[in-house]
Amino acid sequence: MAHIIVSGNEKGGSGKTTSAIHLIISLLKLGFKVASVDLDYRQQSLTTYINNRKKFITSEGISLTLPEHYVLEKSKEQNLQQAELEEGTNFSELISKIQNQNDFIIIDTPGSDTFLSRLAHSYSDAVMTPINDSFIDVDLLGKIEVNDLEKIKPGIYSAMVWEQKLKKAARENKQMDWIIMRNRGSSTDNINKRNIEKAIDKLSKKFGFRIVPGFSERVIFRELFLHGLTLNDAGSTNKVRFNTSIVAARHELRAFIKALGLPNVNLDSKL
Ligand SMILES: Nc1ncnc2c1ncn2[C@@H]1O[C@H](COP(=O)(O)OP(=O)(O)O)[C@@H](O)[C@H]1O
Ligand SMILES: [Mg+2]
Q1: Residues with CB under 5 A from ligand 2 (ion)
Q2: Can you list the alpha helix ranges (DSSP code H) found in 105-243?
Q3: Is 104 in the pocket of ligand 1 (CB under 6 A)?
Q4: For atom 13 of ligand 1, which residue has the closest CA?
Q5: Entry's PANTHER family (predicted)?
Q6: Is 209 close to ligand 1, i.e. is its CB under 6 Å away?
């Protein structure tokens, strides 16, 4: 049975798609069978990323790893209940079709609350949530009193994840591992960074998530998309050349994958 990982956060631009594609290509490089599912039917950034990669493979005549990719469309049904029924059936049929032939299923979700995103969270063995070092991002996890970090109420995203965690437990009698990844961090120490760290630490105890190291802010992430490339592809094409920034970024990627603690994933020189 495939291990299902959802990249989720009800906020656009936090790094869900970037983390998802890096996880997908890393797992493929480690020799696993990986399926990817795009539930962000408006933006479809993951789908475009993978299509860019396919075009790059053809135009350069090189071979790069590709996942088995699926996109789930929004139902055209006007009646909301009917629409959800149709979307739910399509989703569960897809998962049962692909879960026996793959080691991992990585699901990318939109930065908003949709029926399919909620459903996918309830199916996930792990949810990875990239957040940026800003109290706007922290607010989705928990409402914190400015003068008293001890006073915390759940934020909208925490409440949603909690609800889906309970649904998963009821359906499959299995736990969901919730992982927060700090993305686009600055490499220098500053007061904001330390305050965010303190706040997230409090929230993690209250809402039961783990915090793993993420990626620093690097221009390279914005450039890779056009050719559908990832940090893992350095060396396979001269479009991503090894330099000190790439080496440091790949180090962060390995640390991130290691900290996810996925089943049967032992990092070796292949990444
Ligand atoms: N660590 C990073 N450094 C620099 N840019 C980043 C980083 N992570 C993501 N980005 C850029 O930020 C934007 C949003 O990232 P994306 O993965 O599309 O977020 P989401 O899927 O959550 O909306 C993209 O332009 C992406 O290239
Ligand atoms: Mg996205």
Answers
A1: 16-17, 45
A2: 115-123, 135-141, 156-172, 191-207, 220-224
A3: no
A4: 13
A5: COBQ_COBB_MIND_PARA NUCLEOTIDE BINDING DOMAIN-CONTAINING PROTEIN, P-LOOP CONTAINING NUCLEOSIDE TRIPHOSPHATE HYDROLASE
A6: no
Ligand 1, residue 224: give the atom nearest the CA.
Answer: 27
Nearest Cα neighbor of 155 from 7, 10, 56 is 10
Region of 228 (left: φ > 0; alpha: ψ -120 to 50; beta: rest) is: left
239 Cβ closer than 6 Å to some ligand 1 atom: no
Q: Are 133 and 185 in contact (CB under 8 A)?
A: yes
- Collapsing DSSP to helix, strand or coil, 56 comes out as helix
Q: How far is the CA of 206 from the centre of ligand 1 (A)?
A: 28
Q: Whose CA is nearest to atom 11 of ligand 1?
A: 222
- pLDDT per residue rounded down to tens, the chain (271 residues): 999 999 999 999 999 999 999 999 999 999 999 999 999 999 999 999 999 999 999 999 999 999 999 999 999 999 999 999 999 999 999 999 999 999 999 999 999 999 999 999 999 999 999 999 888 998 999 988 777 767 788 899 999 999 999 999 999 999 999 999 999 988 777 888 888 888 899 899 989 999 998 999 999 998 899 999 999 998 888 888 888 889 999 999 999 999 999 999 988 656 7
For the chain, list the domains and their CATH numbers: 3-260 (3.40.50.300)
